[in-house]
Records
---
Amino acid sequence: MTAAVLPPRGDVIATLNFYSPPEDNSKPYNNVDPNPGQPPRNYGSVSHNATIHDIRGHETEYSLDRDAFQVLLNVPESVEKEFVDEESIKTNYYPEVEKLLLDNIPGTNRVYIFDHTIRRSRPDAPRQPVNQVHIDQTAKSVAKRVQRYFPDEAEKLLQGRYRIVNVWRPLNKKPVESNPLSFASTSSLLDQDVVPIEHRYQKTGYVGETAGIKHNSTQRWHYISGMTGSERLFLECFDSESLKEGSKIGGRAPHTAFVDPRSPADAEGRESIEVRALVFGP
């Protein structure tokens, strides 16, 4: 038997999990850190096979304005080495992410990082890769976050260009071998396939909004084979330019982890960090 080649390269057909509405047709919701007896969500998922295109070697052909994702190559090594201490991550890694956003999104004049999530593919990890197609924010939830973090400036900030951009990178010491991240170009996403989902934080009472994605054959899915720690993926969740009449900017990239059928059972589990930021300007 031929040994598996790691990391897997090239286009692949894999199963992606899409939004399925609640059986009782009620408003969909997620419960973050649900209380005892509460379901984590009231909607389901439906699986479809999709061709996922490997953009390795073509990374620079994609942009935030056209695709709502962008790839950075050859990023200098981070001062943060272990990514286990929350305060150390905020002190060492956040400034690096802020600089990347300021340097690589033309016209950006202000960045506010509001949280991050670390995912590790192991049973004891608090958060594991999410195998459900989604978008982290909606227009409604982004405006609400601007008002939450900048109560005195929100009215002015919401008159200019504002976005939420996630900055994603793997934490593995070698190229990603399993559970890679897939993402679709906003240019292939139809409004009718985006479903707002109430996002309820049980501990704080804050209610945000994410989006589930219904399957559509128009969607064009991508991934970066063997992604490394020297690379960054910008994923746009929202861009206020998309609200303007006649705008060709979609500003939202659905994404999900997926099980690569070519990855052997003993492949190293994927570890990653995703930093979420409000980006203002021009």
---
Amino acid sequence: MRTRHLTLALAACLPVALTAASPAGAEPPRLNATVIQRGLVNPWDVAFAPDGRMLVTERPGRIRVYTGGRAGAAQLSVRTLKRVRAEGEAGVMGIAVLSRRPDPKVLVCASRTTRQGRWRNQLMRYRLGDGGRLHFERVLIGDRIRANTIHDGCAVQIGPDRKVWLSTGDAGDLSLPQRGDSYNGKILRINPDGSIPAGNPGTGTAVWSRGHRNPQGIAFRPGSGDVYAVEHGPDVNDEVNRIVRGGNYGWPYCAGTRPANGFSRDCSRDSSPYRAPRWQSGAPTLATSGAAFTRGSNWGPWRNDLFVSTLKESDLRRFAFDGPPLRIGSTLYNGSFGRLRGVSRRSWKGGDALFLTTSNGSNDRVVRITARR
């Protein structure tokens, strides 16, 4: 495989974005972007096993397992999931690994046709075995989440509480995000065995928050453990939200701080009944998708910042947590790789690295971003 290396001296490549990107006197890190896998079809998400094996989902129906997150890493296995219905935005999407040795558990969200013929987004659990083989164990959420060609959500993360967090979209039905009996348009929280954890706001339900349109990224802020979700807006206001227990984020009544869909609501304040976003795009939208926080000291003044991939703008946005409001501190790789779908974090050589997936329809790639001070 021919590997493409892009070493970016950021102050030279992005002078406008980085002029005010770091605290006074703090030099931004130098970034290196390396294409580590190519020839993929709509890769959605990346996750890592404790031993470094890299798992990549492809929306048409596959999970690929590689020996690691380096350039030229060998492919160990390809698992084609059964009964996947990949139409529009639906298919095999989010993935996370519950780090247990010697048999880590793999959680995958995929759009499938049930045995009863219904189209559902299902959360499934696999065991990652020798040789990179994935062994199906069980469906954790099977019939509760409607699938559609649009707005499927399906970000999967393991939280610092060791619970499984899952985002769901409204599946194109405006009635679902506010309905208490629906798992659509929600952020869900469950135990790794599929049971409902203590501490969820409702009784016997996985719902942690409601009022979401299409959240495709979940990330946990280092230190505080606060949950952040990145959400697609309609024609206005993509959002970055801090997710709180029992929070209502307004959709379909609100798009960010604006009333939406002909409803008359006060969406302007972060007060009951709706939570205002920490950041909103205004118009036009960016198609914010994946999300990850950096943790390693190799990121210098960008440590613990939030990185968000965009599809429409084909770039990576860095959000700085240096006081309200949350702001975009840098815009990176503008058009360098095409549309960016996912962004994940992995410990890497004394620090950590980000891993991006592209969404260009053909010859898609996984890109590793490393930083040094």
